[in-house]
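Ticket opened by: R.M.
Priority: normal
Category: complex prediction / small molecule

The reporter submitted a protein together with pyridoxal-5'-phosphate and asked that the result be attached to this ticket for the collaborator who will pick it up next week. Submitted input follows.
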Amino acid sequence: MSDVIKRNLFDQYMVPCFSPASFIPVKGKGSRVWDQEGKEYVDFAGGIAVNSLGHANDELKNALSSQMENLWHIGNGYTNEPVLKLAKNLVESTFADKVFFCNSGAEANEAALKIARKYALDKYGSHKNEIISFENSFHGRTLFTVTVGGQPKYSQDFAPLPQEIAHLPYNNIDAIKAHISEKTCAVIVEPIIGEGGVIPADPEFLKALRELCDQHHALLIFDEIQTGIGRTGYLYAYEETGVEPDILTSAKGLGGGFPIGAMLVKQHVAESFQPGTHGTTFGGNPLAAAVGGKVVELVNQKEFLAGVQERHHEFIQRMVVLNERYQAFSEIRGKGLLLGAELAEKYQGKAKTLTNLAAEEGLIALIAGPDVLRFAPALNISQQDIDDGFMCLEKALKRFVQE
Ligand SMILES: Cc1ncc(COP(=O)(O)O)c(C=O)c1O
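Result attached by the on-call engineer:
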């Protein structure tokens, strides 16, 4: 067998549930990536809001390699030092009293949805089992989380699906007021819909969710898998809203590129999971926890978070200027470094064409559905990388509007 590794091996050997770019990245440093041919890219995608501190961050490398010298995995029959340190830091930095660790966002949401049903069962009985979610939301790819997610295309082929899940319009207070009842055990919401188009929640909507959950004894779950870990300029986006959830899920940026997920909960909720109720082999693994611990330590600092806000203004301003020139977008929105630019009507459906052109010009960017260009770069992206990235984007946009 030839040992030449090329993109065609993906089509030959891998389950075709992704359609990766034609080039293969082989190295990353900061907000730069290089492919097999040595071509350099500026990275405005951050591994889809994951590489919070950029590629191959020296402090994360040190945290990982020093843990690697000591203990890789021990199993949940024992606890370990990095996981205890990370749990303590997350609890002391947030509304939460307890943390459960896992390996991904979907697993964090799976745990959140399960604990919400278990809590309602323990406290109120089996009739209280309905979960309310929102249209266009995304919560992961397990059967429970695709069903709870508000995009039927991800769940419809996998029936029979979990039951008692309602999908209501996002940012619509009247709709949830009319629907929520004593049957509702939880409401799950993204403070900014990420995959579904970078749509921030109205502060009044989140306040109404909190009040309605309290009135109906339902738990409020914030899915902060994309918005968490400094992404919006706060450790978690809920801090800015003035609304505290009962459960919060975190993943993506928490590991800065190393897989880890977490469910943060209030004490009374945590008690519904006892030994044997829920579990995971790798969750709380010392390697992941050591890296996650360093990420939280570095991100959760005033100056660092202020830097995210400064970069936000810079990105928005650059986008506004580009849009004055090319008029490709109808709206530029988002918070911190989770940004979306909705394509103008005549370009709708072509977000992927634009990111393909951007890659040709040396910029890695994301889409959020067919109509939205999305950026989720490293939170510490440098001025030079921003300048160079926007130069590439301008070249791509020029071609995009011409073609
Ligand atoms: C808001 C949100 N929730 C959940 C998930 C699922 O996370 P994972 O892909 O790590 O399972 C994602 C991933 O894009 C997400 O954006």
